[in-house]
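User: I've been trying to design a sequence by hand for this structure and keep getting stuck. Would you show me what you'd pick, starting by listing the structure so we're on the same page?

Assistant: Good idea, let's start from the same input. This is the structure you sent:
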């Protein structure tokens, strides 16, 4: 499986950026990636005040390369960059070695419970 990590620094972001990002993911980004061809899944992760990232797992090298190429071309203007006020600090392809589903299962959701 082919992974891609995109990370932004939140060090200089606006004070309310965590809520703005969570709302953007819930209202827009989640729907954009749900059912996307070539994508196995995407998670959005954040350490408020530190970083925000998208973690993608693609079905093939080609799907990852196609997405990565188009994203890199517009990364500084992407919605995440606009909300945060800066471009990503990391765009890194990786190999996903394995995925395990725990006993409690996996539920796709546009906004995780706090």
């Amino acid at each position: 499986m082919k992974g891609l990590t995109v990370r932004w620094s939140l060090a200089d972001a606006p004070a309310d950026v965590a809520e703005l990002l969570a709302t953007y993911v819930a209202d827009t980004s989640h729907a954009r990636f749900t059912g996307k061809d070539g994508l196995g899944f995407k998670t959005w992760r954040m350490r408020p005040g530190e970083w925000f990232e998208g973690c993608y797992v693609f079905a093939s090298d080609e799907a990852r390369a196609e997405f990565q190429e188009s994203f890199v071309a517009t990364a500084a203007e992407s919605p995440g960059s606009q909300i945060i006020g800066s471009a990503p600090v990391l765009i890194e392809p990786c190999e996903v070695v394995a995925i395990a589903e725990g006993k409690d299962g996996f539920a796709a959701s546009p906004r995780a419970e706090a």
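That's my pick for every position. To get oriented when you compare it with your attempt: Residues 44 and 96 are 16 Å apart (CA to CA). The mean pLDDT is 94.
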